Amino acid sequence: MQLHEDKYKDLNLKIGLEIHVQLKTNQKIFCECSSDYINSPPNNNICPICTSQPGSKPMGINETALENLLKIGLFLGCKAYKKPFYIQRKHYFYPDLPSNYQRTSQPILGNGIFMGVGIWEIHIEEDPGRYDLREGKVDFNRSGVPLAEIVTAPEIKSPEYAREFLRDLLLSLEYLGVIRGESGSIRADVNISIMGGNRIEIKNVNSVKGIYKALKYEIVRQKAVLQRGGAITMETRHFDEASMITKTLRKKETVADYRYIPDPDLVPVYIGPEMLNEIESVLPEFPHAKKKRFIEEYSLGEEIVDSLISDLYLSDLFEESAKNSNPLEAGKWCATELKRRLNEKNLSVSTSKINPKHISDMVGFIERGELSVKNAKWIIEDAVDTGEEIPVLMSKKNFYQISTEDTLVRIIEKIIAENPKAVLDFKSGNQNALHFLFGKVVNETEGRAEPSKTIKLLKDKLCAVA
Amino acid sequence: MFTRDLIEDLLSKSVEEHLHNKIEEIDKRNKEINAFITLSTEEAEKSSKEIQKKINDGIQGKLSGLVISIKDNIAVSNTRMTCGSKVLENYIAPYDATVINLIKKEDGIIIGKCNMDEFACGSDGTSSYFGPTKNPRNIDYVPGGSSSGSAASVAADFSDFSIGSDTGGSIRGPASFCGVYGFKPSYGLVSRYGLSDMAMSLEGPGPFAKDTYGIALLLDVISGKDPRDTVTVQSNNSYLKIVENFKDGDIKNMNIAYAKEFFEGVDENIKNMILDKIGMLESQGAKIEEVSLPNIKYSIPIYYLVVFSEFSSAMSKFDGFKYGHYTGGQDIVEAVSNTRETSMGTEVKRRVLLGTFITMEEFKGRWYTKALKARSAIKEDFKRIFNSYDLLIGPTMPTLPWKIGEKISDPLAMYSSDILTASANLAGTCASSQPVGYVKGLPVGLQLHADSLSESKLIKGMRAVEIVCGGM
To answer: Where are the domains of chain A?
Structure first.
């Protein structure tokens, strides 16, 4: 079951994504220019090749770019196609495209799965330059930065799940060390359809948030059109970041013909089994293998494991903390409360201050009865936010539970003395009086009284009084 | 051997003087012949002084001050590269093509950029924006194309060598019409980096010279693997040795085929002259046999389908935004079409339009994909022949040069003149043209083909023909 899937069940909502990420390399895909397009003045990292001067030819495809792409594919459970792949030319006129065609490969890997969503295919492309429409200027520093395009099956069933899917995907790619870190390094074309309408494509949305907002808007818009008796015809739309709405870009009748041809300047590339084996050997454990291992080794439930393995940093954190604490508890806290807090704060394990010792210490405190489950939720939030050690946070917040009998008995005796009417009510058989008195004890201790011991001792004392 | 003697002369005499003789010839006759679009006289004089010094110190490169002209679709840094078009009238190339780098390294002197058919779209040298090139052997006649200025500059003695490019006969055709040696290397032997695109899967740069020795020398310099062109392969770079070590007896060991298809529709005088030379080779002991290439008849339609498709893609970049001529318009599509309308010649526009049509999604299967399939059938034809024979022999051009202006209004007649040359480009094999005589005062070229990367056999064959025809 996907997040918020129920909400859209009646709509038969189908979402598919074509995700572009910039692959991490030192050089551009077809030349030796630096791929750093952000920290250098405009049109500084350029050469005859990436500006497509007459007569220039592309060099062979950048090896690191290809390796990183293969890592992504294999990690997402894809198989590499056994045939050599061609680089194709996709023709369209735009000022940021120096040759007026974009080089884009045939599918290199396909048939994978991530978070329950099918991955149709993955291929490699070159990024165009950056065109400033208002100034009428083009910066070709970005021209030739390698991109991976990941195409999913239309199996995402809610905007919320699309967001979660993208966040977790980005986290995994970051963990693999295969993508550039800069903002704007993810772009997606979003395909969406609801029952009774045709597929709509929203082109070139620039952030996870943008993708979520575009989807939310589209669902409302399409529902409204259909309710008014209108029709959703196949079209391509554009997402306006400022107003958070989508607008028609082109109708199907004017569908673009990119006149793809194999690029005659480049020889087809063959990926041999040796290369794949080598890359596989340096990859982190595959999600499905990890899942199996977590269930067997730690006896964790499937839902908890799914949540842990969707974020590799999180699963590493869990394993580290499980070395010094009860894995069942550590797993539960990592998969639920920790993940919730990270999402709330738009953080990841790598960008927040949380560490494995936080989790193992916290689980220890809970098991020794020194920390209540309720207070543990607060502790985890503070740990994420501040990174302070658990004992420090416990003292600061005064969260140490009172579980020594002497202390509890002293407090209970005080409460009984102060509330004679309630004691009488209890004696006449009113169970609510017990709860009332328990509440008084909790208040007296500012919530630190260990609940089960307190109830037991309270009952004992009341009977003794009688 | 002419070129070998010339190099010996240069070593003992003056490179500067040699260059001045060329410049003098150019001053005298280029106005009439129009072989150059851009002359680099000053640069050439500067490098001649440097090379002279190197010669004096005995550290000169292989080309030691020989004067070389370059087709104007090959990039020479800081020099204008027009491709014979208004589109690039003011384009200064910011880099050197790989072949230029190699020539400079071996101390060749680059004298200027040669006239050519616009973007290499032509077979007779008359479609240049900068006016037609004329045949130095008779200025009323076309020099052949598209490397018209390259062939003319060598024939008129404006340069010792030239570098042209051959997509379907653009080196061999003009070499034949102008009576010089021209060589189309196997696809991948010479780097295309810096050669402006026409049909990228068919073309490559290649040399013009006055003899086999010159061709082999230039090939040694410009061939080999280049990281900037992924289709390139290693070269043994010792073609000159083959010419130097050639013995008369070598002719006896040659297995030469001639295909009847390469004589169909060929001018009778040309046919007889070529058959005569074949007879002379046979009398010297070469084994000659007739073979058949059944798929050759498809080469022209296939060739032009491939050319149009790749050319329309390659021409996309000439939108007027980054360089060259710009006309403007309401939006990007209008700006691009206005710019192209006003700056491209008829034949270029024809090819862009046809290529766009052929590669459209709905027609691709019908035209482009089929052309690629038929192309492999032609490759098979050649492969079969070269399994049993070293060389394939025939004429280069089906006709003698025609008068300037004669075929301009008939593109199909123009296209058919590539019939004997285009198949080598489709197959990626190597081929040459060399002068073997005159008919009505106009030169006749003999064409040799050899298998892909069998340049050594081809050079050997050229030397044999050269000797048989009374060359030194």
So the answer is: 5-277, 285-397, 405-465
Domain range for residue B195? 1-472
Please provide residue B449's backbone torsions phi and psi, each rounded to the nearest 5 degrees: -115, 145
User: Chain B interface residues facing chain A, Cβ-Cβ under 8 Å?
Assistant: 73-75, 81, 83, 88, 91, 93-95, 97, 192-197, 199-201, 227-231, 309-310, 313, 316-317, 319, 321-322, 332-333, 336, 356, 359-361, 364, 368
- Considering only the beta carbons, identify the residue of B91, B228, B230 that sits closest to A267: B230
Burial B48-69 (b: 16+ CB within 10 A, else e): beebbeebeeeebbbbbbbbbb
Show the tokens assigned to B308.
């149009």
* Active site positions of B, annotated: 71, 146, 170
Reported as a pLDDT band with limits 50, 70 and 90, residue B369 is confident
Q: Is the pLDDT of residue A253 over 60?
A: no
Cβ B319–A93 below 8 Å, yes or no? yes
Q: Model-level pTM? A: 0.87
Is the separation of the CB atoms in A394 and A365 below 8 Å?
Answer: yes
What are the chain A neighbours of B309 within 8 Å (beta carbons)?
A: 261
In angstroms, what CA-CA distances link A406 with A264, A394, A399, A410, B412? 87, 22, 19, 6, 110
**Does A128 contact chain B (CB < 8 Å)?**
no
The predicted model gives B373-383 an average pLDDT of 94
Chain A residues with CB under 8 Å of B195 CB are 55
Contact flag A264-B193 (C-beta cutoff 8 Å): no
Q: Cα–Cα–Cα angle for B261, B264, B270, nearest 5°?
A: 115
CB–CB of B93 and A93 under 8 A?
Answer: no
Compare CB distances from A259 to B194, B199, B356 and report the shortest one's residue: B356
Residue B209: pLDDT over 90? yes
8 A C-beta contact, residue B189 and residue B453: yes
Residue B353, H or E segment? helix B346-359
Tens-digit pLDDT profile for residues A185-198? 689 999 999 998 89
Instruction: State the CATH number of the domain containing residue B274.
Output: 3.90.1300.10
- What was the pLDDT predicted at B325? 81
List of E strands, B342-429:
391-395
Q: Say what angle helices A356-367 and A390-397 make with each other, to 10 degrees.
A: 50
Q: Any CB–CB contact under 8 A between A95 and chain B?
A: yes
Comparing CB atoms, the residue among A54, A257, A261 nearest residue B91 is A54
Q: Packing angle between helix A356-367 and helix A312-322, nearest 10 degrees?
A: 50
Lowest mean pLDDT among A285-299, B337-351, B391-405: A285-299
pLDDT of B389: 98
Question: Chain B within 8 Å of A136 (Cβ-Cβ)?
Answer: no
Structure-block tokens of residue B201: 């899967």
Enter the CATH code of domain A405-465: 1.10.10.410
Q: CA A460 from chain center: how many Å?
A: 51
Question: Distance between CA atoms of A190 and A15, rounded to whole angstroms?
Answer: 7
Q: What is the pLDDT of residue A252?
A: 61
Q: Report residue A190 as tokens.
A: 């979003």
CA-angle at A236, arms to A233 and A241, nearest 5°: 125
- A346 and chain B: CB distance < 8 Å anywhere? no
Which residues, other chains included, contact B305 with Cβ-Cβ below 8 Å and sequence gap of 6+?
A: B358, B367, B368, B371
Residues of A in contact with B371 (CB under 8 A): none
pLDDT tens string B149-203: 999 999 999 999 999 999 999 999 999 999 999 999 999 999 999 999 999 999 9
The whole-number pLDDT of residue A255 equals 61
- Provide the domain count of chain B: 1
What is the reported pLDDT for A5? 86
Give the ipTM.
Answer: 0.94
